[in-house]
């Protein structure tokens, strides 16, 4: 759900923020045992910029998320649904029957007081984690493991969900949010449900300062620069665009059609490419 504002200032005229369905009551009081300080400046190593366009932004703590759902066959009660400044979806604080607490990604439909569990015999309902072999066809899932026991690494963004399309032997075909269909071992765990905050992609910050608070520095287009020494695209933009057959990086290498996958064997488990209509 999006919230709009009365345009009493130019920034508020186009601003749209997300109304998060959290139940903490006090957003400044997360579970202290699951917090870690974030040290060092983002995008820098010993003062040298290694990743451009990043800065510290507003002070925040990192919440430790249990992507592996490591406590198997132990029921847990949802204590709260909280905001996490480091990711798009909400997170849920779980309290297990043995007293241990942990955070997980909160799917749509998960509410305070509900019980969730991780294990082979878990029920197929939002928030439960179980092997792909135990999940029915057509079920929407998230937080999918690539290797058994590794912990969920795929489909973790706000509003995302993947669908189980078919089962073939020890492999399960899953349609990812990009439209790509890949094979996963049926021993890999996944969590049932679609992740919360589906409208996050539709927000409008309204002013540049909101981006700076999030740790994003300004980005200058290469074609807007005056001198070719600053960027290969710089120079006379009005005459010939970038002035070369294809786009290049700030350091001069070609970027049109450049392959970005380092591991060639990832195509071994590809059923349908996301670029094929």
UniProtKB/TrEMBL annotation:
Q: Where is the composition biased (Basic residues)?
A: 256-265
Task: Return the InterPro entries for the record.
Answer: NA-bd_OB-fold, Rib_uL2_dom2, Ribosomal_uL2, Ribosomal_uL2_bac/org-type, Ribosomal_uL2_C, Ribosomal_uL2_dom3, Ribosomal_uL2_RNA-bd_dom, Translation_prot_SH3-like_sf
- For the region Disordered, give the residue spans: 226-267
Q: GO CC annotations?
A: large ribosomal subunit
- Domain (Large ribosomal subunit protein uL2 RNA-binding) spans 43-118
Domain Large ribosomal subunit protein uL2 C-terminal: start-end pairs: 124-254
- Molecular function (GO) terms listed? RNA binding; structural constituent of ribosome; transferase activity
Recite the UniProt keywords alphabetically: Ribonucleoprotein, Ribosomal protein
Q: Which GO terms describe its biological process?
A: cytoplasmic translation
**Gene3D superfamilies the UniProt entry points to:** 2.30.30.30, Nucleic acid-binding proteins (2.40.50.140), Ribosomal protein L2, domain 3 (4.10.950.10)
Family statement: Belongs to the universal ribosomal protein uL2 family.
The name on file for this protein is: 50S ribosomal protein L2
Per the UniProt record, the source organism is: candidate division WWE3 bacterium
The lineage, from the top, is:
Bacteria, Katanobacteria
Task: Please state the gene responsible for encoding this protein.
Answer: rplB
